[in-house]
Structure formats: structure tokens, C-alpha cells
């Protein structure tokens, strides 16, 4: 009699029993960090959005103001969901509340979005957006790596930590574009260029706000010889929270 009780307790320890969004109790055998109602509140990041960076709202135009007429190391950015409602709660749960299993679930939901994003093509490897080692120690894990693990099987590509963050950067959302670019210069490195050469890579991250971190990381990978670099994120921030477009 004792064993099932212990098992259930172990499961509860691994899997907090409240929904990451509405905080309602989840069934003991729940396989998702969101209840069904909140799972349905994840909004797919569907057009109209910028054809390059997937920022929502560029109706009638192919590109947003930031992408129009510019060339990028990160050719294409796609997002499974909009960074709203339940998607925000999901990100907070694995970024600030230590819920690793929520990041893996989010990665598997990114996988479910792949059929509607054929333009992403096929990757040779998934590169988690690197965290600075100090931040990784504090959190105990890199959430982008867990997202990539959740996605890896469906993307038919291994997770490879090919990029490294060399220094911590200030929060980028508050900076103007030129300041963001200065802040990100030399922030990323690619210590094993021989593993990168000729590969089609996807950088995997939780949230895309300005796309500046993806761009900084993509530049390091391209300089190391990658054939192409694309970004695939769990959630895309919409317009309005950026100071500088
Ligand atoms: Zn809920
Ligand atoms: Zn754009």
C-alpha cells in the first residue's frame, strides 16, 4: 500500500500540482504544466507578422520597420506562440520558479508548431541560446537547452551547445538599437568552429523581444562557418514594449 503513495508523493515533488497560469489544481497524473483551459489560451504566433522576425502586426507589409531593407546574420525568426497570457506564465514558471518540466513541455509544444512553419526548413543541430555561466549556476539549468531537448526529436536534430556567452549583458529591451548592438558585440563566441562549419543551425530560445540576442549569437555562429542560422523561440513579444523600433 505504501509504494503507490510514495510514488504519488514523488510525482508531486517533481510536478507541482497547480496550473502555471491560473493556479488551479492539476490532476495528479497531469502531464502538462497548464490545465486544459489555459493550454488553449496559448495563442499561435500566426500572420500577419514580419516575414523575417515574426513580429506580429505588420499587416499589409512584408517586413517590420526594423527588418525592412536590412541584412541579418539570423536570416529568419519564428515563434510557436505570442508572448501573452498563458505563454508569459509558462516562461515565468521555468525562468523564475525552477519548473524544468515546464520548459520541456514548452519545447514539445514548439514541436507541434513545426508543421505550420515549413519555411524554417530542416536544421542539422539545435543550438540553445547560451546563458552566462554565472546565471546558469544561479538557475541550475539553461531553460533554452530544456526547450531544445523537448523539440529535438520532432526536429530530427540533436541539441548541441555550440555557442557560449562571454559576458553578461544588460536587459536589452530598455536599450536603443545602437546601444543593443554595442552591448551584444563580442558577447557570444563559438569555441569549436569545426563543429559549426557548413551546418544549418537553429538557435532555440524562450522569448524573442527585439531579436538582438538571436542576432548576436547568430553572428558568432556564422563567423565560425555555419551555413545558415535561424531562430526558433517559444514565444514572440508583440509591438509596444520596445522603446525603439
Ligand atoms: Zn489553468
Ligand atoms: Zn521584422
Please tell me about this protein's structure.
There is one protein chain. With 245 residues, this protein is an alpha/beta fold. It has two domains: 1-41, no CATH class; 43-236, Rossmann fold, CATH 3.40.50.2020. It has nine helices and six strands. The strands form two sheets. A four-stranded parallel sheet has the order 1-6-5-2, with helices on both faces. It has a two-stranded antiparallel ribbon with strand order 3-4. α9 (212-223) links the parallel β5 and β6 (228-236). α3 (85-95) packs across α4 and α4 (100-113) runs parallel beside α6. It is globular, with a radius of gyration of 18 Å. 43% of the residues are buried. Residues 241-245 have low confidence and may be disordered. Residues 50, 52-53, 55, 63-64, 66-67 line the site of one zinc ion. The site of one zinc ion has 8 residues, from α2.
Question: Mind sketching the topology for me?
Answer:
Blueprint: H1 2-14, H2 36-39, E1 76-82, H3 85-95, H4 100-113, E2 125-128, H5 133-139, H6 143-155, E3 164-165, H7 177-184, E4 188-189, H8 193-196, E5 200-208, H9 212-223, E6 228-236
Parallel strand pairs: 1-6, 2-5, 5-6
Antiparallel strand pairs: 3-4
List keywords for this structure.
245 residues; alpha/beta; Rossmann fold; two-stranded antiparallel sheet; disordered C terminus; binds zinc ion
Amino acid at each position: 500500500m505504501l509504494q503507490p503513495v510514495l510514488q504519488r508523493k514523488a510525482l508531486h515533488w517533481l510536478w507541482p500540482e497547480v496550473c502555471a497560469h491560473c493556479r488551479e489544481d492539476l490532476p495528479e497524473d497531469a502531464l502538462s504544466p497548464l490545465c486544459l483551459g489555459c493550454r488553449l489560451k496559448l495563442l499561435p504566433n500566426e500572420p500577419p507578422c514580419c516575414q523575417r522576425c515574426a513580429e506580429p502586426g505588420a499587416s499589409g507589409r512584408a517586413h517590420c520597420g526594423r527588418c525592412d531593407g536590412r541584412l541579418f546574420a539570423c536570416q529568419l525568426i519564428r515563434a510557436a506562440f505570442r508572448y501573452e497570457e498563458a505563454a508569459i506564465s509558462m516562461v515565468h514558471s521555468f525562468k523564475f520558479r525552477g519548473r524544468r518540466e515546464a520548459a520541456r513541455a514548452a519545447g514539445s509544444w514548439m514541436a507541434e508548431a513545426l508543421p505550420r512553419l515549413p519555411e524554417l526548413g530542416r536544421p542539422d543541430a539545435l543550438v540553445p541560446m547560451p546563458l552566462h555561466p554565472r546565471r546558469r549556476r544561479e538557475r541550475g539549468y539553461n531553460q533554452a537547452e530544456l526547450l531544445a531537448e523537448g523539440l529535438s526529436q520532432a526536429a530530427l536534430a540533436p541539441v548541441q551547445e555550440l555557442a557560449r556567452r562571454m559576458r553578461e549583458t544588460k536587459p536589452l529591451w530598455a536599450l536603443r538599437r545602437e546601444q543593443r548592438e554595442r552591448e551584444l558585440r563580442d558577447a557570444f563566441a563559438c569555441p569549436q568552429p569545426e563543429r559549426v562549419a557548413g551546418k544549418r543551425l537553429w538557435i532555440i530560445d524562450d522569448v524573442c523581444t527585439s531579436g538582438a540576442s538571436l542576432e548576436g549569437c547568430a553572428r558568432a555562429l556564422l563567423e565560425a562557418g555555419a551555413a545558415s542560422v535561424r531562430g526558433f523561440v517559444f514565444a514572440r513579444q508583440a509591438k509596444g514594449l520596445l522603446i525603439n523600433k
